[in-house]
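Quick one:
INPUT:
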């Protein structure tokens, strides 16, 4: 036997020898731990349990409900406490920043006003309401979703539209996760009425927020439940005045819309050999005239030499053009060349490409426009320049009229305005 094997066997024998000597001690300590643990459990279970006269503390909305909105077990356990249930309901309203409704709910029944929980909740809601700060509706960060997919089994069933749904739409589960992330970052949901509210005319008559669009769009909105009296159907040449803003409907050049059927089902109409439908029924461009400048929105228009007609008829400051990298076999967005030609024809001062970053199969690079612009601007004597937006960015005309790119705030403007707490200057 080698010396190494001998040492290993001797060490194992020594280990078991010492273990056998201390085994009784280990057993005693284990029994003591069991006795103490059992005693603590019994004391907390039977001695410190809730007394019959104790009133339960009402739970918050998030605690009382599950993520799907159904009552949790704790909420069901308090079903014999109507005041607690009422406070919980009011708390849910308060978490939606509707403090007035929450306090109104708790104040309806005079018989419960003496309950200290009611007065405590009312005071809390009033305090939270008083701490609110009015928002600047002119500077509202928003999140936009094309559509929500409620039934993924139908959306992702393997047909030709599945990839499009996956790239540009949001499922219910994704939407709920996004909401949680927004809430955690301090964002809240608000009603569109809180931002785009109804107003009155010079006679004090209420003006409802209108839905303005071509014939086919209005028909679709009404199918979705938009009241007919809120809808205004427009065609090229129509003008709508809303306070100090004038909206003028102009010709659209969205050739895709005239080869797109209203239905994709068995009732889909046959377009082969049929004269194209009137584009004016399906799409229009808009000129929005404001005191600060005039905005031209081309929607999904392709390029047309008729842009030059609009440029001669109207004074255009900022123009939006649908830009994208068209896949093989598709012509749906304007190219970088088309964007420059459109801006030149419209005689605008600034052109802003849109749609280039919202469709994965049409994803484009705005720097391509910038390269072409720098290459051609001097020879063609362009009187405009492009502006490239970023998600979450802001563009104010005419204050930003000379900008090419949007850049989020870089910070550190206050550098060296206060003494530096550093060992020595070279650390910076």
């Amino acid at each position: 036997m080698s010396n190494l094997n001998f040492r290993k066997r001797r060490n194992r024998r020594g280990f078991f020898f010492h273990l056998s000597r201390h085994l009784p001690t280990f057993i005693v300590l284990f029994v003591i731990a069991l006795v103490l643990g059992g005693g603590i459990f019994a004391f907390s279970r039977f001695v410190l349990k809730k007394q019959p006269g104790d009133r339960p503390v009402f739970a918050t909305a998030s605690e009382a409900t599950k993520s799907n909105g159904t009552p949790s077990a704790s909420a069901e356990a308090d079903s014999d406490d109507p005041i607690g249930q009422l406070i919980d309901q009011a708390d849910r309203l308060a978490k939606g920043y509707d403090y007035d409704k929450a306090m109104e709910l708790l104040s309806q029944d005079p018989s419960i006003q003496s309950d200290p929980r009611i007065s405590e909740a009312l005071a809390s809601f009033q305090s939270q309401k008083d701490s609110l700060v009015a928002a600047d509706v002119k500077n509202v960060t928003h999140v936009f979703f094309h559509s929500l997919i409620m039934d993924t089994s139908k959306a992702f069933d393997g047909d030709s539209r599945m990839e499009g749904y996956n790239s540009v739409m949001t499922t219910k589960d994704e939407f709920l996760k996004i909401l949680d992330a927004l809430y955690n970052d301090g964002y809240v949901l608000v009603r569109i009425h809180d931002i785009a509210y109804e107003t009155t005319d010079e006679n004090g008559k209420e003006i409802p927020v209108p839905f303005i669009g071509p014939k086919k769009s209005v028909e679709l909105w009404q199918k979705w439940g938009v009241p007919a009296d809120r809808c205004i159907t427009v065609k090229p040449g129509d003008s709508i005045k809303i306070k100090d803003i004038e909206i003028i409907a102009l010709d659209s050049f969205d050739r895709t819309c005239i080869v797109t059927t209203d239905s994709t089902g068995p009732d889909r109409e046959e377009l082969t050999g049929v004269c194209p439908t009137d584009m004016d029924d399906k799409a229009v461009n808009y000129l929005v005239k404001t005191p600060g400048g005039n905005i031209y929105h081309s929607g999904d228009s392709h390029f047309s030499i008729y842009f030059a007609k609009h440029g001669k008829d109207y004074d255009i400051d900022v123009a939006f053009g649908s830009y994208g990298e068209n896949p093989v076999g598709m012509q749906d967005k304007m190219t970088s060349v088309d964007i420059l030609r459109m801006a030149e024809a419209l005689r605008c001062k600034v052109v802003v490409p849109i749609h280039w970053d919202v469709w994965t199969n049409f994803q484009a690079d705005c720097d391509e426009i910038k390269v072409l612009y720098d290459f051609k601007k001097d020879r063609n004597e362009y009187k405009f320049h492009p502006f490239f937006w970023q998600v979450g960015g802001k563009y104010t005309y005419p204050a930003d009229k000379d900008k090419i790119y949007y850049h989020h705030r870089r910070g550190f403007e206050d550098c060296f305005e206060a003494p530096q707490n550093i060992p020595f200057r070279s650390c910076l």
